[in-house]
Design brief:
single chain; about 325 residues; alpha+beta; Immunoglobulin-like; 7-stranded antiparallel sheet; 4-stranded antiparallel sheet; 5 helices
């Protein structure tokens, strides 16, 4: 019969050794030129609505390090006896939790995103809010109702009193589970509370355990158009969404009768340009699907071609046939 106490001692000893090794590697990361990576560089990436975030790209990560980070993450799962955790990808320093949740999972390349960056970033700004731009530029909006995030691709932020962005994850179609990258360790599917980012302490009260609060964010697209009034024959009109920089997004455009597509309207196009080509009720509709499976749609109904007036209104009081000679009067046709 296996001795559970002995197993626990072995696990603790292993974790102790791994922590010592990790501290040694962290000391090497202070001077990038001294580690075995080829090099790293700062880059700009975009929010879905086009604002710039600072990120780093690492090149030439040694496979030994990936194996180390992978083993370390799995040892944390074993130490805590977490039963919900399934590793989906190996450990790596090439992307972290924030990068995965907000960018990589949506089709972006592997980068490392810090919630805030100091003057070392390419902008040189001493305190750059960075990740907060995903919300401040209205690319995403916060939701509280369960039906708003009971689907794929919703962003989940783990928040503490001393850190608004401790950890980021994405939802699955089961609200008990999330998917998140654990720093340099692996990518895991797990219960929201079965990760080391769910609980923490701070320097002021090291004996006090804090538990994370969850904040939920969904993509916040808008449909814009030059006008939704009557579209006369051969007159052009452009419809678009403000989600312009989301690598894995697919756009499904649907157009009705009496209009012709002039430009755009493809699966990778965030706009469509049409012109009137007949007389009658028509529409331009859009369905947006993100790489993580989040969906959103918008409908625009209007009339194309020569208008058919249903009523005319004019100045009051009636009757207007008793107006004054030489005076001007304005009348309105409906539809306009």
């Amino acid at each position: 019969m296996k001795n559970p106490t002995k197993k626990r001692i072995i696990n603790i000893s292993l974790l102790f050794v791994l922590i010592l090794t990790q501290n040694k590697i962290f000391s090497q990361l202070v001077e990038p030129d001294t580690i075995e990576y080829d090099y790293y560089e700062w880059v700009y990436i975009k929010t879905p609505k086009g604002d710039s975030l600072e990120a780093t790209v690492w090149y030439g990560e040694p496979p030994e390090w990936k194996a180390y980070w992978t083993e370390y993450g799995d040892s944390i799962v074993d130490l805590h006896n977490w039963t919900s955790c399934t590793r989906l990808d190996s450990g790596t320093t090439e992307y972290n939790c924030h990068a995965f949740a907000w960018y990589v999972s949506e089709g972006g390349n592997d980068v490392w995103i810090n919630p805030k960056t100091e003057s070392e970033g390419p902008s040189g700004v001493s305190t750059n809010p960075n990740l907060e731009k995903m919300i401040s530029d209205s690319s995403y909006k916060r939701v509280t109702e369960i039906e708003d995030y009971n689907q794929f691709g919703v962003k989940i932020v783990y928040q503490f009193p001393y850190n608004d962005y401790e950890h980021s994850a994405i939802s699955t179609n089961d609200t008990a589970y999330v998917i998140s990258k654990w720093a340099k360790y692996g990518l895991y599917k797990h219960y929201k509370h079965e990760c080391e980012y769910y609980y923490s302490s701070d320097d002021v009260s090291p004996d006090t355990t804090y538990y994370a609060e969850y904040r939920y964010y969904i993509l916040n697209p808008k449909m814009t158009e030059e006008s939704i009034s009557i579209l006369c024959n051969n007159v052009q009109r452009t419809f678009s969404t403000d989600i312009t920089d989301m690598p894995g997004a697919e756009f499904t455009w649907d157009t009705g009768d009496y209009i012709t597509t002039i430009d755009g309207g493809g699966i990778d196009d965030y706009f469509i340009k049409v012109k009137g080509a007949g007389n009658g009720d028509t529409h331009v509709n859009l369905e947006l699907t993100t790489n993580t499976g989040f969906t959103w749609s918008a409908d625009n109904d209007f009339y194309a071609g020569k208008p058919v007036f249903t009523s005319i209104s004019g100045p009051s009081p009636y009757p207007v046939d008793k107006g004054c000679t030489g005076e001007q009067y304005t009348f309105w046709a409906y539809p306009a």
